[in-house]
Amino acid sequence: MLYDDYPAKINLEQFNYITTINNYALSCAGVGNYEMADYYFSKIERVSPTTNQVEVKIFEYLSANRLDIYLRSATLDKSLLLVKDIESGLKKYGKKISELFKIVMYSNLCYLFFATKNYKNALAYNNLILDKETTIYRSDIFRFARIMNLLIHYELGNKLNIDYFYEATERFINRQINIYAFERWFLSFFKALISIKEKNKNTLFKEKEIELIGVLNNKNERKIISHFNILAWIRTKHESISFENAIKDYLENSFEDYGKKRKKQ
């Protein structure tokens, strides 16, 4: 790397340096090398910013992208350690944070709190996404926030309003120009979930897990896993396994091998 050979250039070109390192980290995460990705984020963390612009950008990279790799790798203990700094940074930098990074932070915090069963905080951050007036930044996150809203209210046991939220989500999805097979599957799954008797839910979760694996055999549909590993969540509903361990088990296999293994269970 150029900056390793000329370390004096780091302070002279801080913005370019942290952007380059961030891109290295994301490239590592893209191939599943989360340990190396975290190494690069540690290099960003060690930079002492000389301008406010660099200070904010460091916050964006570490709070959005670093938390994202921790969630993808099911490193929930490290994820939770970032929360205090992220929440204080959101207040400190406010409008200086780009809307793109802010939306990603909200989404990741929602995911983290859901994964650690802090559903009220998960709902609070998901609502910050749903309350946005524009969806031009990461429309995929806005679309999934509708689904996440249903999952959170289900976990909160909000039976009074769950039918209303389901119908609103169904209308929203049906208005989209392109509807993913996952979205159609989810509507079918969730309608069955809120209608079925409690004693039959275990069987439903088992059947729908296998059904979902079939949907996600299409790589284009599998993007959902980057927002929320719903396969892992469904598994926790009918097996004695934590969400974190279910994700780790998912990561240990190729998707094809994971699907074959789950179908044999």
Written description of the protein model:
About 75% of the residues lie in helices and about 0% in strands. With about 260 residues, the chain is an all-alpha fold. Helix 4 (about 35-45) packs antiparallel against helix 5, helix 5 packs antiparallel against helix 6 and helix 8 runs antiparallel to helix 9. The model has no long low-confidence stretch (mean pLDDT about 90).
Biggest sheet overview: none
**Low-confidence sequence ranges:** none
* Rg over C-alpha atoms, rounded to the nearest angstrom: 20 Å
Percentage of residues in helical conformation: over 70%
Count of helical regions: 16
* Share in β-strands: under 5%
Number of strands: 0
How are the secondary structure elements laid out?
Layout (H helix, E strand, L loop, with lengths): L1 H4 L3 H4 L1 H17 L3 H12 L6 H21 L3 H18 L5 H17 L3 H12 L8 H17 L6 H13 L6 H13 L7 H16 L7 H4 L2 H7 L6 H9 L3 H10 L1
Label this structure with key terms:
265 residues; mainly alpha; 73% helix
Quick description:
With 265 residues, the chain is mostly helical. The protein has 16 helices and no strands.
